[in-house]
Design a protein that fits this description.
With 353 residues, the chain is α+β, with helices and mostly antiparallel strands. Among the domains are: 27-92, Structural Genomics Hypothetical 15.5 Kd Protein In mrcA-pckA Intergenic Region, Chain A (Roll), CATH 3.10.290.10; 198-317 and 340-352, 2-Layer Sandwich (Pseudouridine synthase), CATH 3.30.2350.10. Helix content is 24%, strand content 27%. It contains 8 helices and 18 strands. Strands 7, 8, 9, 10, 11, 12, 15, 16, 17 and 18 form a 10-stranded mixed sheet that branches. Helix 2 packs across helix 3 (57-65).
Length: 353
């Protein structure tokens, strides 16, 4: 199995994940093939099968659906016909790397563990998966250390390990599979949308209605490849649905509960921005600016102090529920909102008083 094939397998199982990669996401070229002058018109999926060893056509079609197949720098579908001189690239959301994952003694907040899986509470700031500029110090490196005495666990085997991912600066719960069977079982639950995931966020403004449903395809922004964007239904991107409820109104911000029906990259962050309420201090989507309130210097200083208190997007994966792949028992986990978010919320509460 090639690195490309392994990455696709990981991404397939994480397809319904909120933040499939850490912040700073870019696309990195793994393969580049230039069609020669005598190239006959040929579908790009067939073209790549002929040029890439041990990669199935199905995998390539999945990559095309995920906008990971580019021709002359533009994403194409699998039925695109390659012409002489075309530059065909296979890109992923992390660089190609061949280095072995090094086990590192990084503290883990393990909420639950048995022989089949473990649930970990990831702190904000911890990158989930090794990638560009982050080949060590990640959650995967920490898991390698934690599992170092387990002869059946191979941290480099894509058939086990993280079932889903969240952004670097999002805190909260993740489930890790210790066996291939567990990862397949859990992956299907995420794909079939039977897992239960609830997030707590702080957003600018007061969403109306107070309880609502946001539906809109999410795909990579055409203007900024580091951002995701909402597109008209059926146009491009992938179907996405977020349910939200305002649980506390605090003058110019709100504490919101979000429940994922689907789970696309940056889904909550993108959907809340789409309805005009970006997450507080979300630099990627404009929430690190003062978007509501007064123009007084005192208020500006107050907001800046809040930015310093919670120096990342205010988003926490609070609850996670799924069916245990071995026992069939429904399991449900919850973790408190971390101190940086709670301290920032308390500042807004004091202002509201």
């Amino acid at each position: 199995m090639t690195q490309f094939d392994e990455d696709l397998e990981n991404d397939e199982l994480a397809a319904d994940d909120l933040g499939a990669v850490d912040d700073g996401r870019e696309l990195y070229e793994h393969y580049r093939i230039v069609a020669d002058k005598g190239q006959e018109l040929l579908r790009v999926d067939k073209f790549l099968v002929a040029h890439l060893p041990n990669v199935s056509r199905n995998r390539i079609q999945q990559a095309a659906e995920a906008e990971c197949i580019l021709v002359n720098g533009r994403a194409v579908k699998s039925n695109y016909r390659v012409k002489p001189g075309d530059i065909v690239s296979v890109v992923m959301d992390r660089p190609r790397y061949e280095n072995e994952v090094i086990a590192e003694d990084i503290p883990l907040d393990i909420v639950y563990e048995d022989d089949t899986l473990l649930v970990v509470n990831k702190p904000a700031g911890l990158v989930v998966h090794p990638g560009h500029g982050n080949y060590n110090g990640t959650l995967v490196n920490a898991l390698a250390w934690h599992m170092k005495d387990n002869p059946d666990y191979d941290v480099s085997d894509p058939r086990m390990g993280l079932v889903h991912r969240i952004d670097k600066d999002t805190s909260g719960l993740l489930v890790v599979a210790k066996t291939p069977e567990a990862k397949t079982h859990l992956g299907k639950q995420f794909f079939n949308k039977t897992t239960k995931r609830e997030y707590v966020a702080v957003v600018w403004g007061i969403p109306e209605p107070r309880v609502g449903r946001i539906e809109g395809n999410i795909g990579r922004s055409l203007r900024d490849r580091l951002q995701m964007a909402v597109f008209p239904e059926g146009d491009q991107g992938k179907h996405a649905v977020t349910h939200y409820e305002v649980i506390e109104q605090l003058n110019y911000v709100s504490v919101v509960k979000c429940v994922l029906e689907t789970g696309r990259t940056h889904q909550i962050r993108v959907h809340m921005k789409h309805i005009g309420h970006p997450l507080f201090n979300d630099a990627r989507y404009g929430g690190d600016q003062i978007l509501r309130g007064t123009t007084s210097s005192h208020y500006r200083q107050f907001v800046n102090n809040c930015f310093d208190t919670c120096a990342r997007q205010a988003l926490h994966a609070r609850t996670l529920g799924f069916v245990h792949p071995a026992t069939g028992r429904e399991m449900f986990f919850s973790t408190p909102v971390p101190p940086d978010m709670t301290a920032m919320i308390e500042r807004w509460r004091n202002l509201a008083k």
